[in-house]
Amino acid sequence: MKLKENKVIQGLIIFCIIIVVVISIFGDKGFLQLMELKRQEKILVQEIEDLKEERREWISKINSLKNNQTYMETLAREQLGMVRNNEMMIRLYYNVNFESPLPSQETE
Predict the structure, then answer these.
(1) CB–CB of 71/64 below 8 Å?
(2) In this structure, is residue 104 part of a structural domain?
(3) For residue range 14-30, what is the model confidence (pLDDT) as tens digits?
(4) Where does residue 99 fall: left (phi above 0), alpha (psi -120 to 50 degrees), or beta otherwise?
(5) What is the pTM for the complete model shown?
(6) How far apart are CA 68 and CA 61, in angstroms?
(7) Total domains, the chain
(8) Of 54, 57, 73, 56, residue with least CA distance to 65
(9) Dihedrals φ, ψ of 72, to 5°?
(10) Where in the sequence is the domain holding 76, given as residue range(s)?
């Protein structure tokens, strides 16, 4: 009888160990969830670094606009089409026609 009880106890212990292992791997706070959270953390850390770099670029542009008259004039010329008092702007417009200028010739 003692032998039978020992086998039952061993079986229950093994069953409990299996349950604990399965829960620790697949449970809400298990190993797989931990790996997913670490992956998400890496993505978020990279996004933060990208945003910090973008912020540095914007701060540099703002400082250039505040302190560099040449930079401001260049932007005004390129983006707003502004000119100095003694200059004249000439804009050239052209129409691109991709159709053949010759009528199509049909062979009979």
Answers:
(1) yes
(2) no
(3) 888 888 888 777 777 77
(4) beta
(5) 0.52
(6) 10
(7) 1
(8) 73
(9) -65, -40
(10) 2-80
